[in-house]
Amino acid sequence: MPGTIVQGNVSTEEVLGPSAVTAVEGEKVIEMDEKIRKLRPDDSQFSTMSDRIDHRTTTREKFNWLEEDDFPRIVTTTTAQISTDTTLVLTAGQGKIVAGNDILRNMRSGEAIRVASVATDTCTIVRAINNNPAAGAINVGDQFLVVADAQPQGSDFPGPRYLGRVLGYNFTQITRTSWSFTGTQTSIEMYGGREPGKEAVRKAREHKRKWEAIGFFGARSFQAAAAPENEPRGTAGGAQEFITSGADQAGPLTAGAFEQIMMTVLPYGDPNSKVLFCAPLVAQNISGWVLKGMGAVWKPEPTNVYGVQVDGWISGVYGNRVPVVVKKEWQEFYSATNPKGYASYGWIIDMSLVSQVPMRDRDTKLLTEQQPKGKDVYSAEYFREATYEFAQPPAHTKFWGVTAATY
Length: 407
Description:
The chain is 14% helix and 30% strand. By secondary structure, the chain is α+β, with helices and mostly antiparallel strands. The chain folds into 2 domains: 40-69 and 167-407, phage-related protein like fold, CATH 3.90.1690; 74-149, M1 Pyruvate Kinase, Domain 3 (Beta Barrel). The protein has a 7-stranded mixed beta sheet, covered by helices on one side. Strands 2-7-4-5-6-3 form a 6-stranded antiparallel beta sheet, with no helix packed on it. The longest helix is centred in the middle third of the chain and has 21 residues, at 197-217. The protein is elongated, with a radius of gyration of 31 Å. The relative contact order is 0.16.
């Protein structure tokens, strides 16, 4: 093929360069930055944290754990009583909480009473045992604290009472993140490195993000026969499955509302292991607060917690400093038509009661040479079978419906 005749100076336009249109590669060397720029940072902090805590494995596709609490000590009346009445009707089932010789305090009026006997959920009581305050009206919904029993000298062995333990469980889930290239493609020199190694790095991040998503939004289920192989399939439940308490904020998150949320969870579990995972919209609200007293600190100081760099700290009620992890990727979930979506969420999770539990010998692994025998391709995958343990739901909580702050 004859070349093009050029008169005068030869510029960059006369030298044959690469053309995306004609597929001509030309004689110019492409200037290409070897570093591939990533749009999203690694935003899988929860997966990293929970993988480093109380690490253990399971040998079954269903993982169980036991939860226990102390014996209940608050009862509620369902009927109104006048000062001379000597019966107390409790909420159905609460008659098992009290027994004869128990001392109760009305937490509204302060009146102290003694239980003489219990028949199902109706107590025969002795009123105002110290006459301070005197016997008064008992309202529907009054709550009584079961202080303790007061047994007379020489009394008989009291009837034992027992609070049963609760069985928690979750199913293992299998995730497989695969990639495949033709043999020719793996031999071609490429900017940023050759395949399949370059793609393997990206797939590792993708695989980890799957377990981050399962940790928050996974659904617990088990199917005995899943098509097309008609073999069992399990799915692991995450925070959304186990943490059922919470409140719709339906507007900007105030400092007072946040303190109320913290008060519901700090009495349970380990108060020093609470972590706030929140969407950027929630962090925007928090950053505008000016707190006083024990809640005076919003400290944007990156610190390492459970192997993860947190975005800041907030001092909650009781003076506990709570790490704040901003889930930047949740901003992708924002929709003006769905203001209560995951872009409006905050989770307070007690990390001492959460862990990842991989199946024995089936934790994350890179499986190479997965291509069919005789086929001129290279195939590989990241494989994992695991589940999450979320113990003691009252120790965690969530809130949602947070909208943009107004300053």
